[in-house]
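Input set for joint prediction.
Command: fold jointly, output tokens.
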Amino acid sequence: MLTFDGFKAGMRRMAGVALFGVPFGIAFGAAAVEAGMSMAEIVAMSALVYAGAAQFAMLQLWHTPLPLLSIAFVVLAVNARHLIFGAALAPLLNALPRRQRLLSAYLLSDANFADMQAARQSGSKDLGILVGGGFVMWLSWNAAAALGAFIGGTEKDLSRFGIDVAMAAFFVTVIAAPARRVSNLLPMGVAALVSVATLSLLPHGWNIIAGALAGGISGAIAGVIRER
Amino acid sequence: MSADIAPWIAIAVAAAVTFGTRTLGPVIMARVPATRRVQQFLDSLSASVIVAIVAGYLARGTLREAVALAAGALAMMLLQKPLLSMVVAMVVAAVWTMARP
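tokens >
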């Protein structure tokens, strides 16, 4: 289901995280101007692609002639983790009407996925939380990118205020709850090990997919053994 | 290809690929029977993907990030307040940077 109350709750829940994301958006806008993008292109890219890591990666390839195939592959590699998010949310997403499903998918990203997982752990099945959280993140990302493009100039040092660890710190707060369930410790440990072990072996970002799949499979195997 | 249109094609390609990654997960799972095993796989997957992100982040980072996230995790366990725990992690990281420039 997807309710307006959930949407409002999602916006409230993610407002603080969205605020910490603003410096990244500003840094992206400023870096995009340096890479030669126009204001209209920056705004369009942030609104339509709406994936911070992939957008930064695209800037590395932003020279004439634009290597479209390379851009497509890099964006696919960096964003392939969305497949895992979508699969994990599939029981809820597939119960929605088509239009709501597409809207939920469009606004699906790391932070509001993590927040939705936290909401599910406390019993909620309302994807309004995902969409509301995604919407407030989308708004702040676009506003920040436009602001960064406007003020441009020198890249701000995010580490000075610890802002660079904000997103990872948010993820840590989300895994704190499942880490307390003993049955989750094996898949989480396997995921961490495989993610680190494959970091230098796989293309950028695919260690996350390898780790997640290994964790998921080990969880299912542990289930078979437990119930025998 | 005209130079003015190329950036817009690149943006459209990136947007289409990204939207594809966002929609494909549920489409695939709709074709997989919802057995108890699949349920356990998805449950473990949800926690695992976030752990995999954090573990990769720590492996690429330095002691500073590890100490900051450990402080954030400790704060979360003691206080159960996500936003406050984030701030704790950020303060530790900021102080670390200030103390060792």
